[in-house]
Amino acid sequence: MKIRLAADLQKDSIVDGEGIRAVLWTQGCPHHCKGCHNPETWKVDGGMEVDLEDVKLALRELEGQDGITLSGGDPLYQPDACYEIAKYAKKLGLSVWCYTGYLYEEVLKDEKMRKVLDYVDVLVDGPFLLEERSLDLYFKGSRNQRVIDVPQSLKEEKVVLVPKYAKERDVFPHPKREEHLYI
């Protein structure tokens, strides 16, 4: 099986989920969000085609990473390949985060996308909305997006947000001031 990627596996990210993470940048996205920071990943025939065994080898060779993040593009545009990658990452003991422009509720309705959730710890869902953009949010680009605890959501059969990111207002300490910014 193959997967279309926008770039090689990126190591040592601290902005694409908790901890130090390796990021798999998938190619292809149907959402075309205005203001997207990765519009080069939209084309379904862009990037490069990679064998899943090569991705698994790269994951096995990772050192010092707390987990992997599936991003892109939209990883759920290639659900079969991302299912295999997420499943393999969990087998290696890595946590799995996934970013998607689909809403969690939409993912549940699609059998192939839903299957990926069985191996995802955290899903950041929803399209990026430029009018909701904020640089002061943890692990998401716009206020409409949710940081979802997937295992708990599946168990409770409802969306359960990761508690530390589920405050009514996100609070982010500003590096140049002692007070917090409230948004």
How do the strands and helices of this protein lay out in sequence?
Blueprint: E1 2-5, E2 10-13, E3 21-26, E4 48-51, H1 52-60, E5 67-72, H2 79-91, E6 95-99, H3 104-109, H4 111-116, E7 122-125, E8 146-149, H5 150-156, E9 171-173, E10 180-182
Helix pairs in contact: 1-2
Describe what this molecule looks like in 3D.
- The chain has helices spanning 52-60, 79-91, 104-109, 111-116, 150-156; strands at 2-5, 10-13, 21-26, 48-51, 67-72, 95-99, 122-125, 146-149, 171-173, 180-182.
- It has 183 residues and is an alpha/beta fold.
- The protein has a single domain (2-182), classed as Aldolase class I (TIM Barrel).
- The strands form three sheets. It has a six-stranded mixed β-sheet with strand order 2-3-5-6-7-8. A two-stranded antiparallel ribbon has the order 1-4. The protein has a two-stranded antiparallel sheet with strand order 9-10.
- β2 (10-13) and β3 form a beta hairpin.
- Residues 168-183 have low confidence and may be disordered.
Keywords:
disordered C terminus, alpha/beta, 6-stranded mixed β-sheet, 183 residues, TIM Barrel
In the CATH scheme, what's the topology name? TIM Barrel
How does CATH name the architecture?
A: Alpha-Beta Barrel
Sheet-strand content, in percent, reads 15-25%
Number of domains: 1
Mean pLDDT: 90
In short:
With 183 residues, the chain is an alpha/beta fold.
